């Protein structure tokens, strides 16, 4: 689903974020991405979502070579990726319903279909009945779950989460991870970036560790990851 | 993983996509209207600026239109005076008049013989006393010719004059249309001025709308970033802004039309008085419904253009980070 081949990223100004990164996340897999702040976690996620482009190497997402995507193709790739942010990125002046409905509105679903899917997504994250609320009225954990509902509402094959448990207490963090597990069970590929090592330790998933722009555990930790090299 | 060459553009069937395309357009158009309605003060200020900017070229257009209709009605006043050689008998003059009367270019012919000319001169000039010292009548006989409508323009009348001067009895002719030519030159200058001022004001309208849309884009920066993150195309994001520009244009155009009608109504009685003094039957013309349509169509195009230029420049600059 995600394949990095000798990927390097240097920001204008010479700051080296990633160098020679290789890893392959298979369809239906769930994995953690960890490392200190500044190790390149967010850069790696930005390369997957085409917010940034690599200077060298190949990035393949869902079979598409990012380097070959034109500017007008990018929105369509992003529709296949559900993104969850630490800072939620919710629209505070819109209702919970409108926030979650946004990806469906963009894709041009009919009103009835949108309503059905939004309510189902809110039900899945445990926010059924709060669709008319404004995100400001919700707690931090609930806001995070609105963001998750928005990421999964159009059933993308790939789910990316950037520090989804950043500001939450351990119990709420665990709830949210259980949620990701249920999505993974239904076939969604999940990649979670976090520096919460305690959380990772409690769960038996593959971990990619970024250290000074290099990926450790990109290949060897997965017994089932055959034929990794591109 | 298979290497799919093409990204799936839509998960909807083609028929559903076409229907949703129109529904989205209507929703965006209505949504933009609602957005304007929610900030009535700032929206009205912008629309008022557009209305005033558009009313100026429209007012000048009304002015030109009225000036043209006045000069047209004066065109037919062109008259040619033919001075007859001395010593021609009344009979030859009569035959000349009959000949001129059958010219297709001529609508009317009048004859003033030498005695009548003298009479008229004595009455009107104030030199009556001086004339009585002369032994003979120094004035020639005059034939006045009114050209037909087709030949009443300066160019046509001049042509006719040349033809009439070829007649052997005619000593020379005079065409008093210089004032008419000057008036037409003034009208032409006026038209050109209107065009230049209109171009400047049209540019102002585009800039005002462009700037208003730029502010709207800046205000919704976070929203645009989020929309780009969840896969909105630029066409989708820019559509509400384009409709906002079109609404600004339409309402600004209607405002301009209202301003023009108020202006015409205000000037009408004063103008009627002035024209009455000149014995004219002319009535001031305002903008017709067709011209209202043209004004609104032009204004909505300008609104679209202004917002399009702004959107092109500023929407691309906003990228999620």
Walkthrough of the structure:
The complex is a heterodimer of chains A (about 230) and B (about 325). Chain A is an alpha/beta fold and about 230 residues long. Chain A has two domains: about 140 residues, P-loop containing nucleotide triphosphate hydrolases (Rossmann fold, 3-Layer(aba) Sandwich), CATH 3.40.50.300; about 70 residues, no CATH class. Chain A is built from seven helices and ten strands. Chain A has a six-stranded mixed beta sheet, with helices on both faces. In chain A, strands 2-1-4-5 form a four-stranded antiparallel beta sheet, covered by helices on one side. In chain A, strand 1 and strand 2 form a beta hairpin. Chain B has two domains: about 190 residues, no CATH class; about 100 residues, Alpha-Beta Plaits (2-Layer Sandwich). In chain B, helix 2 crosses helix 9, helix 7 runs antiparallel to helix 9 and helix 9 packs antiparallel against helix 10. Chain B is elongated. The chains are: A alpha/beta (about 230), B alpha+beta (about 325). The interface between A and B is medium-sized, with 31 and 32 residues.
């Amino acid at each position: 689903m995600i394949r990095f081949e000798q990927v390097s990223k240097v920001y204008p100004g010479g700051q080296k974020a990633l160098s020679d990164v290789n890893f392959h996340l298979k369809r239906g897999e769930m994995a953690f991405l960890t490392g200190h702040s500044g190790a390149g976690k967010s850069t790696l996620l930005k390369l997957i979502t085409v917010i940034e482009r690599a200077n060298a190497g190949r990035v393949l997402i869902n079979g598409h070579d990012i380097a070959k995507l034109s500017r007008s193709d990018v929105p369509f790739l992003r529709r296949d990726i559900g993104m969850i942010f630490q800072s939620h990125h919710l629209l505070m002046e819109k209702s919970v319903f409108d926030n979650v409905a946004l990806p469906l509105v963009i894709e041009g679903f009919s009103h009835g279909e949108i309503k059905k899917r939004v309510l189902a997504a809110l039900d899945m994250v445990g926010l059924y009945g709060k669709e008319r609320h404004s995100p400001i009225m919700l707690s931090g954990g609930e806001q995070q779950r609105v963001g998750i509902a928005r990421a999964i509402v159009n059933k993308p094959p790939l789910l990316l989460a950037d520090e989804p448990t950043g500001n939450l207490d351990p119990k709420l963090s665990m709830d949210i991870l259980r949620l990701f597990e249920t999505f993974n069970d239904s076939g969604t590929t999940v990649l979670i970036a976090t520096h919460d090592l305690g959380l990772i330790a409690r769960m038996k998933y593959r971990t990619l560790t970024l250290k000074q722009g290099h990926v450790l555990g990109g290949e060897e930790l997965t017994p089932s990851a055959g034929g990794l090299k591109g | 993983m298979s290497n799919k060459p093409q990204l799936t553009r839509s998960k909807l069937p083609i028929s559903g996509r076409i229907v949703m395309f129109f529904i989205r357009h209507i929703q965006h158009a209505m949504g933009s209207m609602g957005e304007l309605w929610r900030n009535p003060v700032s929206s009205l200020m912008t629309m008022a600026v557009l209305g005033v900017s558009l009313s100026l070229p429209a007012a000048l257009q009304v002015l030109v239109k009225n000036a043209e209709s006045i000069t047209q009605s004066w065109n037919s006043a062109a008259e040619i005076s033919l001075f007859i050689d001395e010593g021609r008998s009344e009979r030859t003059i009569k035959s000349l008049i009959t000949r001129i009367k059958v010219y297709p270019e001529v609508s009317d012919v009048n004859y003033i013989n030498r005695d009548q000319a003298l009479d008229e001169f004595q009455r009107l000039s104030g030199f009556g006393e001086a004339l009585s010292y002369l032994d003979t009548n120094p004035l020639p006989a005059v034939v006045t010719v009114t050209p037909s409508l087709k030949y009443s323009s300066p160019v046509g009348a001049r042509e006719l004059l040349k033809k009439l001067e070829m007649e052997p009895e005619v000593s020379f002719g005079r065409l008093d249309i210089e004032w008419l030519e000057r008036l037409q030159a003034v009208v032409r200058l006026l038209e050109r001025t209107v065009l230049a001022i209109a171009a400047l004001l049209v540019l102002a309208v585009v800039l005002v709308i462009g700037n208003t849309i730029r502010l709207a884009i800046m205000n919704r920066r976070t929203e645009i970033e989020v929309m780009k993150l969840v896969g909105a195309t630029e066409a989708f994001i820019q559509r509400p802004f384009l409709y906002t520009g079109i609404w600004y244009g339409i309402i600004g155009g209607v405002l301009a039309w209202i301003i023009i009608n108020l202006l015409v109504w205000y000037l009408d009685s004063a103008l009627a008085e002035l024209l009455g003094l000149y014995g004219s039957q002319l009535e001031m013309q305002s903008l017709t419904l067709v011209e209202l349509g043209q004004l609104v169509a032009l204004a909505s195009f300008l609104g679209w253009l202004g917002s399009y230029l702004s959107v092109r420049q500023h929407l691309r600059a906003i990228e999620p980070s």
